[in-house]
Design a protein that fits this description.
The structure holds 2 protein chains of 2 kinds.
Chain A lengths: L1 E2 L1 H19 L14 H24 L4 E2 L7 H24 L1 H15 L4 H22 L15
Antiparallel strand pairs in A: 1-2
Chain B lengths: L1 H10 L2 H19 L5 H12 L4 H18 L1 H7 L11 H9 L3 H34 L4 H18 L4 H15 L25 H18 L20 H7 L1 H16 L5 H15 L12 H16 L1 H7 L5 H12 L8 H4 L1 H27 L1 H5 L3 H20 L3 H18 L5 H23 L11 H23 L7
Helix pairs in contact in B: 1-18, 2-3, 2-4, 2-18, 3-4, 3-10, 3-16, 3-20, 4-7, 4-14, 4-16, 4-18, 5-6, 5-7, 6-7, 7-12, 7-14, 7-15, 7-18, 8-9, 8-22, 8-23, 9-22, 10-20, 10-21, 12-13, 12-14, 13-14, 16-22, 20-21
Classes of the chains: A mainly alpha, B mainly alpha.
């Protein structure tokens, strides 16, 4: 998705204005002239100025406000994009209840399948990789990867 | 003398040498696979180095990045796809040589002149950094304020053509840096009641998102099929190298000097060093008409430049805590975690560790000769690793790495958000590097700004009254003026 510069400019102005209003609620530090609002306030002002220039420049180019890349017309490409994002979200929500081993296997297996790796091969690589990463992070680096429903058989 | 002996002891022990060897192989692989960059290698290494002592942790990053910048030449030469952006400048040239049957010469030159450039950059780092630190030890908040601002300005200035968008992404980085408790007033800003945001966003998950997850997204929506290698069998890559060294001494030196200098400029790294050196090489060549037809001269010069830039970037990183490129931006985060606060005092407080880093630099560059040759030999295998198996594994690695930093899934959410943000930014012509620099330097900029404002009692002239501060301030304003004049003079640049 490509947006024209003037759209980005507008977004910058909105962001800058929001921050400017929000920092007004920061308390002043007693006995100090430069409180926590000064620095973010300056940044926000910068956003507004840059946003204005971007709007002017963007409008001058006369380009369309939105441009769609060719991949956005391909269902397969959108599936692949969503798969990458969904895989991270899946780990975010499933790793604690399901545990690392199950989450990681499902995540890899599903991604392999979506990206066109043959099923059996995908399953084998998913199992090997899951255990290898578990060994590296859990055993060698002592990261407390969650066990989830497999807590009873933790090693 | 004693710290140097200590430093040798720190590096030459089995554990550290093992880490160096493993990260060398890792770096060679990552660099050789198109779509995986040296910065990505660093971001992926950080969660692992998290659990190591300081010297092996830093050694891993130094070695992996040096190797990756070289091995990025391999797919560029053999498939016309640069393995890392640092090889992009001379990919067409190297590929043209391959088509003429000179793949060995192009790859050999990439390897040998990478080593020469890398060692040159290291020597400048070893000699220059302590000298600069002696000078910097007297700096007050005024000098640091201008230095940081000048660094950030350079980062924007170097993203040519889109200075304004560079400013926007820089401001975004500074805004992100102001999240959390870490400000002079100690007031929780922009946390919206979240306990996790009190400690700001978390540098390392953010880096993994911007440099690794965004690349995965780019790969996922890339419609072009995996390219095939053009060469069946590669011969001896060292043949003819002695002749090249004798033929192009000036080019080698110029590439190394320019590379080190560009590396030391904040925000510009190996990729820009290679582009500029390639252009210079063509400009000063006796036979500029041969460039682009498979001529080795430009590869010699820019191959030396991109590896010397790596070492150059460490100079401001160690002396001022201002990263010279996006790799050292990550390194600064690692240094803090390891209790090595970058700044002029690091040369006094951690002398032997700093020497150990220097030794690792030299070792990594020497190790590049044999390992690089093996990597070229194995290139056929490496380049045919199916991307649809590799990318999901890297994704899992990113996720677990982000989790491992604080043992919470908060980091996992961060990599998703910044992965998508990084992808959209690049697609719309917003450079990512200034954001990273803004996040790294935001706290430092604010602290020095606020304390300077208090010292100067709100008078702006106070920022220029000390001689060095005055010079730095003047230079910063000069660059600003130049940039504004340029952007007014020029017609607006259309979005990429």
């Amino acid at each position: 998705m490509k947006l024209q510069d003037s759209v980005w400019g507008l977004l910058c102005i909105l962001l800058g204005a929001t921050v400017l209003i929000y920092v007004q609620s920061f308390p002043a530090m007693p006995g100090q002239r430069y409180g926590p609002a000064v620095f973010p306030g300056l940044i926000a002002a910068g956003f507004v100025v840059c946003g204005l220039i971007l709007v002017v420049r963007g409008l001058k180019t006369g380009e369309p406000l939105f441009t769609r890349e060719s991949w956005t017309r391909s269902g397969a490409m959108i599936t692949r994009l969503l798969a990458v994002c969904a895989a991270i979200l899946f780990y975010l929500y499933a790793s604690e209840p399901l545990g690392f081993l199950i989450t990681s296997f499902l995540l890899l297996f599903a991604l392999f399948w979506i990206f066109g790796v043959p099923l059996k091969r995908g399953a084998i690589i998913a199992i090997v990789t899951t255990f290898a990463i578990h060994l590296l992070f859990y055993k060698v680096m002592r990261v407390p990867l969650p066990w989830g429903i497999l807590t009873g058989m933790a090693w | 003398m004693e710290p140097i002996i200590q430093a040798f002891g720190m590096v030459f022990e089995p554990y550290v040498l093992g880490v160096i060897l493993a990260s060398a192989l890792f770096g060679l692989f990552v660099g050789a696979v198109p779509g995986l960059t040296a910065t990505m290698a660093t971001a992926l290494l950080v969660p692992i180095t998290f659990f190591m002592p300081a010297v092996p942790a830093i050694a891993a990053i130094v070695t992996a990045t040096a190797m990756a910048i070289f091995s990025g030449d391999i797919p560029g030469c053999l498939m016309r796809i640069p393995g890392t952006p640092a090889s992009a400048a001379y990919t067409d040239e190297a590929y043209a040589m391959t088509k003429k049957g000179q793949a060995e010469l192009a790859l050999g030159a990439g390897l040998v002149f990478s080593v020469i450039g890398g060692i040159f950059g290291t020597i400048v780092l070893v000699l220059g950094a302590p000298w600069l630190a002696d000078f910097a030890i007297r700096f007050s908040s005024f000098e640091y304020f201008w230095l940081v601002l000048l660094g950030l300005t350079c980062a924007v200035f170097i993203t040519q053509g889109n200075g304004l968008k560079g400013v926007v992404t820089l401001l975004l980085g500074l805004l992100i840096a102001s999240i959390g408790l870490d400000n002079p007033a100690g007031f929780p800003r922009f946390t919206f009641g979240s306990v996790e945001l009190l400690g700001s966003v978390g540098m390392i998950p953010m880096m993994i998102g911007m440099f690794a997850v965004s690349e995965l997204i780019r790969w996922a929506v890339d419609e072009s099929p995996q390219a095939q290698m053009q060469v069946k069998q590669l011969g001896n890559v060292f043949r003819g190298m002695g002749g090249l060294i004798k033929q192009y001494p000036l080019q080698t030196l110029r590439g190394s000097v320019v590379g080190t200098a560009i590396g030391a400029l904040p925000g510009a790294g190996a990729d820009i060093a290679a582009w500029i050196s390639y252009a210079l090489s063509k400009k000063f060549s006796k036979t500029p008409e041969k460039f682009g037809t498979g001529h080795i001269e430009g590869i010699v010069e820019s191959g030396a430049a991109n590896n010397s830039a790596l070492a150059g970037a460490w100079i401001p990183a160690l002396v001022f805590g201002i990263p010279g490129d996006s790799i050292t931006a990550i390194v600064i985060g690692v240094l803090y975690i390891k209790g090595l606060q970058p700044g002029p005092m690091i040369f006094v407080n951690s002398t032997s560790t700093v020497y150990a880093i220097f030794i690792v630099f030299i070792l990594a560059n020497l190790l590049m000769l044999p390992l690089g040759m093996l990597c070229i030999k194995a290139s056929k295998r490496i380049l045919s690793v199916p991307r649809n198996i590799l990318m999901p594994i890297i994704l899992l690695f990113c996720v677990v790495g982000a989790y491992a930093i604080n043992n919470t899934v908060f980091g996992v959410a961060i990599i998703l958000i910044f992965g998508i943000a990084g992808y959209i930014m690049e697609e719309n012509g917003f450079p990512v590097a200034p954001t990273i620099l803004g996040v790294i330097l935001g706290t430092m900029l604010e602290e020095n700004f606020i304390s300077s404002m208090i010292k100067a009692d709100g008078r702006w002239l106070g920022f220029f009254e000390r001689p060095i501060a005055g010079v730095l301030g003047g230079a910063t304003l000069l660059v600003w003026g130049w940039m504004m004049w340029q952007s007014l003079r020029k017609k607006p640049v259309a979005a990429r």
